[in-house]
């Protein structure tokens, strides 16, 4: 299963325009639990545990037995994870050894 998140839309739905203003509402794709598992490499149990402790985006109820996740929210979560791995000391709020505070 090859899943890709859509590019972040900007003005008039173009992902190339960097003006930052939206002229029309942009619809966010909803992801299924299976898609979220594939994109995050997390199990269903891990996803729900992280939702419950506030460290993962909450699901959106779609019906009595159906939920979805905002593709935008999942993309932001993945970006925060990449940032935390790139700058682990900053992400944890600790002081980097050898650097003045």
Write the layout of secondary structure elements.
Elements: E1 30-31, H1 33-40, H2 44-53, E2 60-63, E3 66-70, H3 71-86, H4 88-92
Antiparallel strand pairs: 1-3, 2-3
Question: Would you give an account of this structure?
Answer:
This protein has 101 residues and is an alpha+beta fold. Helices cover 39% and strands 11% of the residues. It has four helices and three strands. It is globular, with a radius of gyration of 17 Å. The chain starts with 29 loop residues before the first strand and ends in a 9-residue tail after the last helix. About 13% of the residues have low confidence.
- For the termini, the CA-CA separation is 46 Å
Shape label: globular
Output the strand order for the largest sheet: 1-3-2
Provide a count of the helices: 4
Question: DSSP strand (E) fraction?
Answer: 5-15%
Give, in order, the helices and strands: EHHEEHH
Helical proportion, percent range: 25-40%
Kindly name the structural category: alpha+beta
Beta strand count: 3
Give the C-alpha Rg: 17 Å
Low-confidence stretches: 9-21
The mean pLDDT is 77
- Profile the largest sheet: 3 strands, antiparallel
Give a quick precis of the structure.
It contains 4 helices and 3 strands.
Descriptors:
3 strands; alpha+beta; 39% helix; three-stranded antiparallel sheet; globular; 4 helices; 101 residues; single chain
